[in-house]
Design goal:
Layout lengths: L6 E2 L20 H25 L3 E8 L5 H8 L8 E5 L5 H4 L5 H4 L8 E5 L4 H8 L5 H20 L2 E9 L2 H13 L10 H6 L2 H14 L7 E5 L3 H18 L18
Parallel strand pairs: 2-4, 2-5, 3-4, 5-6
Antiparallel strand pairs: 1-6
Helix pairs in contact: 1-10, 2-10, 5-6, 5-9
């Protein structure tokens, strides 16, 4: 399948309305779920090669609106990976220590080391998104943050980190249904945050900022993918496919064995 239509690999003017939230390609749910087992097997093998090579790393960034499916993506796409080589970092409101530093300080500290896969559940983009929508920082500060983010991601890429950024694109109606499900199911009450409704009321404002983020921070070394996410099964299939495609393109190698090791016999 051609994933280029979902990829923004250079600065360009982005309109989220140009991407369907309920796209399913030419797949059925049954076919996609059958393919997922093969993809997860490939992911595990590629992760092992990345870990063994210990020269490069992978950073996966997940951004979405509330109920957009970040947790579900991690659960269903990444669950088959070896925990020894994976870390998941959730980003919340900066604590007192984090707020006393520049906004990228806490991010750089948890970037993946060589051989590792790190998944950001939200990310440094929250420090552009929320302050812009809520007017918590002036335009000059926000504009500088766009520049700092581009340079930061370039630094990571130059240091051997492959970066993939996924915007999980859901419709307003799909978000309404998912939030309502959290209210209707007692076992999901813990997921519901009344503050999500206040953010939902700012849907258009968030759309505008996300469009600027996608437009200005897409690059060949840190591309954004706009993932149609109304259908969870297609979201999972797409992200798993892009991960496999990217890791395969890195041509990961196992380290050379020590000379003469093939002649050793364990007594």
């Amino acid at each position: 399948m051609d994933f280029d239509k979902y990829c923004i690999d250079r600065p360009k003017h982005v309109r989220l309305a140009d991407w369907k939230t309920d796209d399913k390609g030419k797949l059925t749910k049954e076919k996609a779920e059958a393919l997922m087992a093969e993809l997860q097997g490939k992911l595990l093998d590629l992760q092992e090669r990345l870990y063994a090579e210990n020269q490069r790393s992978l950073l996966v960034i997940l951004q979405a609106r509330d109920a957009g499916g970040k947790d579900g993506t991690i659960k269903h796409v990444m669950s088959g990976l070896n925990p020894l080589g994976v870390s998941v970092v959730p980003f919340k409101v900066p604590n007192e220590l984090e707020a006393a530093h520049d906004f990228l300080w806490r991010v750089h500290a948890v970037a993946p080391r060589k051989g590792q896969v790190t998944i950001f559940n939200r990310s440094h983009y929250e420090d552009i998104l929320v302050p812009t929508v809520h007017g918590l920082a002036d335009k000059e500060v926000i504009d500088k943050r766009y520049r700092h983010v581009r340079h930061f991601e370039e630094l990571l890429a130059d240091s051997g980190t492959r970066i993939l950024k996924f915007y999980l694109h859901i419709s307003k109606e799909e978000q309404r249904q998912r939030l309502q499900e959290r209210l209707d199911d007692p076992e999901k009450h813990w997921k519901f945050n009344p503050g999500d409704l206040k953010e939902r009321a700012l849907w258009d404002e968030y759309t505008t900022v996300y469009e600027r983020i996608l437009s200005e921070t897409s690059s060949s070394f840190a591309p954004w993918y706009v993932i149609p996410a109304d259908r969870k099964w297609y979201r999972n299939y797409l992200i798993a496919s892009v991960l496999v495609q990217t890791l395969e393109s890195m041509d990961l190698k196992y380290p050379r064995i020590a000379e003469g090791i093939e002649h050793i016999t364990i007594e």
